[in-house]
Amino acid sequence: MKSLLISAMVMLSATTASAFDYVVTGNAAPEMEGKMFYLLDDNSNLVDSTKVTAGKFKFQGNADKAYYGRIGFKENVEGGVRTNYIAELIVEPGTIEMDMNKRMPAKGGELNTKFASLWGGVMAKQNAVMKQLEALQKDSLDQETMMQKRNEIVNAFYQDFGTTVKNAILENKDNAVGVSALRQYSQLCTPEEWQEVYAVVSPDIKNLDFVKEQNNKVNNILRTSVGKKFIDVEGKNIDGTVAHLSDYVGKGKYVLVDYWASWCGPCRREAKETLIPLYEKYKDDDRFTILGVATWDEADETKKAINRLGYKWPQIIDAGTAPSDTYGFSGIPMIMLFGPDGTILARDIRGEEIVNKVAECLK
Fold first, then answer.
1. Helix intervals (H) in 68-142
2. Per-residue pLDDT tens over the stretch 26-80
3. How many whole angstroms separate alpha carbon 338 and alpha carbon 247?
4. Does a cis peptide bond (omega within 30 degrees of 0) precede residue 340?
């Protein structure tokens, strides 16, 4: 009994020793006076709230470990309440002074110094790119040359940005600075690049909600990549009966599947500019069909859009998030081409790429 008590005391002492106190302070813009600011952790859980008073705010508390955090405020928008994030930091021991113009820490401990160096450097490069683009507008260049130079500048920035955040992850694979870099990297890396950094980050980072969600998305992309067989998805027919992707795919035809929604402007443009002409061209070809799969949409709104926009090809509606969950996409339209046996021949294709791929298969 005595040994158990001693062990418990040792564990309690170790736990207590790792905890720390922190203070986060900063000045707020005049229009923020009286608003509630919220501090959220790296799992987007609410940690604390404080009211902006006399142009200042202050969070004060304790934590068991340092973490990547965000400061935001809530505002009413159509359909509910949205949190606007206005600054990022690392919650660590001591006092952290925020520079709300730069949206990052001005003073803090070792991790916040690293954090500010990383993102301050990125911001400086971004500002330099903006000046380059502004200068380009003043040059007497023809439109084609200007667009080419603009793309070169922007592409060079994003290539450098990707390298910078990847290196930051590898150098901070077990701390909160790495978490902040991983959040950004997850939005621009390929599935293979994600797997590379995921393999080296700490178990604590792998256990964060956004990391688990991104890793699941990447796994779904890889298992539904070009050359793999389709995975079935369930929705409904227009009359409300149950429908499956397998009712169309893998039945001996080439099937161009358009994952879309009634509220999606790019979906409507792609349908008008590419899918409707493609349907008219191949509507009598028994080797090919187009299939719409309404994603993230209300059934009634989908039906109205189908009638209003004149879509004549078959539709699966009310599929919810099943398509994006299964195929690992986060934006629509997502257009995929399946072969007669259900093999994925192309995914995330648009415009002329769709036309050319279909023509290639049916030549």
1. 110-138
2. 999 999 999 999 999 999 999 999 999 999 999 999 999 999 999 999 988 777 8
3. 13
4. no
Q: Is the dihedral of CA 315, 317, 319, 321 positive or negative?
A: positive
Q: Give the model's confidence band at 6: pLDDT under 50 very low, under 70 low, under 90 confident, else very high.
A: very low
How far is it, in rounded angstroms, from Cα 353 to Cα 349? 6
CA atoms within 13 A on the CB side of 75: 8
Instruction: Please name every residue paired with 71 in a beta bridge, in sequence order, or none if there are none.
Output: 39, 87
Query: Which amino acid does the sequence have at 199?
Result: A
CA pair distance 7, 90, nearest whole angstrom: 33
Q: How far apart are CA 151 and CA 163, in angstroms?
A: 18
Q: What is the bridge-based pairing of β-strands 288-294 and 36-40?
A: unpaired
Predicted confidence at residue 255, as pLDDT, reads 98
CA distances (Å), origin 41, targets 16, 25, 104: 20, 16, 15
Helix (H) or strand (E) holding 210: helix 209-223
Rounded distance between C-alpha atoms, residue 205 and residue 179, angstroms: 7
Residue of 313, 340, 218 lying closest to 258 (CA atoms) = 313
- CA atoms of 337 and 51, how far apart (whole Å): 53
b/e per residue 155-164 (b: at least 16 CB within 10 A): eebeeebbeb
Instruction: Tell which residue, 256, 274, 272, has the closest CA to residue 351.
Output: 274
Reported pTM: 0.82
For position 24, what pLDDT does the model report? 98
Residues 334 and 331: their CA atoms lie apart, in Å, by: 7
Radius of gyration, alpha carbons of the chain: 26
Beta strand spans in 33-160 (E): 36-40, 46-51, 56-63, 67-77, 80-91, 94-99, 104-107
**Phi and psi at residue 68, in whole multiples of 5°?**
-75, 130
